[in-house]
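Much of the work behind modern protein science is quiet bookkeeping, done one molecule at a time. The fold becomes a row of whole numbers, each drawn from a learned catalogue of backbone shapes. The protein below has been through that process, and both of its lines are reproduced in full.
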Amino acid sequence: MKRLTLTLIAILFTAGIISAQSSASATATVLAQLKKGLSITQISGNLNFGEIILNGSAQNQSILPSAGVLFRVIGHPNKSVTITFGNVNLNNNDWVSTNGGTNGTMVFTPVVKHTGSSSTYNNPNDVASGNSYNLVNVSGDGYLYLWVGGSIAIAANQPHGDYTGTFNITVAY
């Protein structure tokens, strides 16, 4: 009888536990971090070296970043962006195909600076291709102003004509 009583107590105790655990709940935090999309826009300026008279000697021509092209980057505030750019090969192929002459090439070597969230060329900082820079928080948006100048090296025997190429700059989170 003692054994039967213990068995009944065990069954009742187990039934109580089972019924106490017939439902349970838990919570989890849901998080979505929405980042502002990244854009880059040319605001002003150009990289036009103008007319250069060939004189039979090698020469270098340059445009200062403050007198070149100004780009504005907008994205998520305080987020880091990687900036990439490279040299540009210029050629006079289109000019030669229209006018005749000798095809030639030369290289534009860019110089890029940034002024943080300022669209004024004050206290510029060097920008190296492949490095990362933080977007500066301005009223909830991230800004970075990029200034591009650079130089071309003209050979002593450089063929004449109108030389063109395309400068590309990329920003990425």
Q: What stands out?
A: The two ends are 77 Å apart (CA to CA). The longest strand covers residues 141-154. Residues 37-172 form a domain with the Immunoglobulin-like fold (CATH 2.60.40). The CA atoms of residues 50 and 162 lie 10 Å apart.
